Amino acid sequence: MANELLYPKHTLTRSVVSLDGMWKFKWDPASIGEKENWQSGLQHTEWVPVPSSFNDLFTDKDSREYAGDFWYEREFFVSSDWKDKDLDVRFGCATHKAVVYVNGKQMTSHVGGFLPFNASINDVVEYDAYNRIVVKINNELDATTLPVGKSITLKNGKKMVKPFFDFFNYAGLQRSVSLVITPKESIIDFTVKHELKGEDALVHYDVETTGEHPVEIEVYDESSHLVAVQTGKQNTIEIKQANLWRPLDAYLYCFRVLIKDKETIIDEYEEEIGIRTVEVKGDKFYINEEEVYLTGYGKHMDFDVIGRGMDPVVMKRDFELIKWSGANSFRTAHYPYDELFYQMADREGIVIIDEVAAVGFLESTKNFLDAAGGKVTGFFNYDIVHQETKKNHKNDMYELIQRDKNHASVCIWSLLNEPDTLSERATGYFEEIFDYAWELDVQKRPRTFASIGTSIPGKCNCYQVCDIVSLNRYYGWYFLNGFELSDAEAFFHQEMELWQDVGKPVIFTEYGTDTVNGLDKLPSVMWSETYQKEYYDLYHRMFDYYDCVVGEQVWNFADFQTVEGKNRMNGNKKGIFTRSRQPKPIAYLLKERWEALAGVQEGDGETWHLI
Ligand code: BDP
């Protein structure tokens, strides 16, 4: 298959035709589609927008909660100008499993709802004619899917999903779909790794193509001046007096990759590359050999009506709010985001902790409450987890690292969120997953997983595999809350003493309180704005006290949709911003703190930069 996971780009030799817009749509609750030949065309359909989730478009509950198969269809024109080219249909994602048909024939299938894939369609298209693409998708969850959950059937025969995670199971064609036209001999992959040499930088690169013609690289600076050239599929480029990519101070070079036959350009592809190194030493985290302290958010891709559909307008607003609040990072909780987020983060100098959709690895529909209450779920005791789930997990990691490996913004991989770490069989699973990430990533970025409150030294069988320890902690919210907040602080200290002794850097990847915007009370009560402030003050005291803490990412950037339930009032309200992206009062407190942290600080007699 051509193109692999390169982002679709229009260049001298390549074309991209957007297939976004209105598509035909049809539910298939009895899974009869294939038997009735729906792959050749759908009858009696709805019309829905792509990209978007289907769930919040309709006004009835059956549509919102639908679980099972559903189908999309649209037509697209193929010009005879493309006869000697490779044609692929590229899906930004299809959540969670998809089968793609073109002109009635199965082209490809894909498992995993948050990563791109291609269908090579050369063999079936008709030229100078309209062609039909039909996609069957399924949104059900089980112990082998990423994320994990289960599907149940109600007495009335309708299916529903029970996620083992705390966000709505939005589904559909949630990211852009495009027709990608490339030359037969083309660039299919491009990998970079950076090394600093005083003022200069070495960029080691590796280009994969489908042919034997020579490869040339041209590097341009931000003023479009050619600063370096190199030849060969694998080689090193020296950039004199390199401008490095730094948090909140990004610099991007344009890397132009060419396949040439003498002076004729056979294929051309461009990527914007930030030059930087990332590393962990002792209990500190470094970018370009400078210590870094992360501030920011755990996020979701979530917005009113469009659900988890990619919308560049919402994304832009999110980046503006991130910058306004003085933050320098976010985690793509709890799945890989649309590629535009990473391009934007490269450009804005925002550090990303890039997360695989390995969430729900704890057998519970309210995992935090159950784990905090001491319920041991033994997720890793099931054999199927070590076979099917692990296979899907590794496949998602492969696609994620393949897709995101060149982004300067991606500085840390998060390989799971809140898994069961207490089962003995968890250790082997974690070791294999962590080794695999190391093998896949030529930049050897630090690896972590976001750990649940019960995963503490002495009990957790897995933290030793991490380069960075990430803590999701809710002292003062899920337990020891309200008037018991002072006890929360005392227990919190006990745990932190243990982490301080471990000798690894610690990032807080979650902490927060559900807070209803506009609800306040003096003295405070839980859910009020004043309580939220008291809670955050406690956490800030803690972060400032322990040296091993190298980052703080609040939960969550904005309020977001979850399943309905007695612990959730139309969703999770831990947002620093409302779902419509307006600040709650706590946002101003964080802004003050993070802006102060972003300044130059004095430490142990030497001056060092927090960002
Ligand atoms: C943790 C999860 C996160 C939840 C959060 C919460 O990692 O997805 O939304 O807690 O309960 O369990 O708010």
Automatic annotation (TrEMBL):
Q: Which residues form the Glycoside hydrolase family 2 catalytic domain?
A: 278-597
Keywords in UniProt for this one? Answer: Glycosidase, Hydrolase
Q: Which InterPro entries match?
A: Beta-gal/glucu_dom_sf (IPR036156), Galactose-bd-like_sf (IPR008979), GH (IPR017853), Glyco_hydro_2 (IPR006101), Glyco_hydro_2_cat (IPR006103), Glyco_hydro_2_CS (IPR023230), Glyco_hydro_2_N (IPR006104), Ig-like_fold (IPR013783)
Q: Which domain of life is it from?
A: Bacteria
Domain Glycoside hydrolase family 2 immunoglobulin-like beta-sandwich intervals: 184-276
- GO molecular function list: beta-glucuronidase activity
Q: Where is the Glycosyl hydrolases family 2 sugar binding domain?
A: 18-183
Which SUPFAM superfamilies does the protein's record reference? (Trans)glycosidases, beta-Galactosidase/glucuronidase domain, Galactose-binding domain-like
Q: Which Pfam families match?
A: Glyco_hydro_2, Glyco_hydro_2_C, Glyco_hydro_2_N
| Enzyme Commission no | 3.2.1.31
Similarity comment: family membership: Belongs to the glycosyl hydrolase 2 family.
Name of protein: Beta-glucuronidase
Organism whose genome encodes this protein:
Virgibacillus xinjiangensis
Identify the taxonomic lineage of the organism of origin: Bacteria, Bacillati, Bacillota, Bacilli, Bacillales
**Gene for this protein?**
uidA
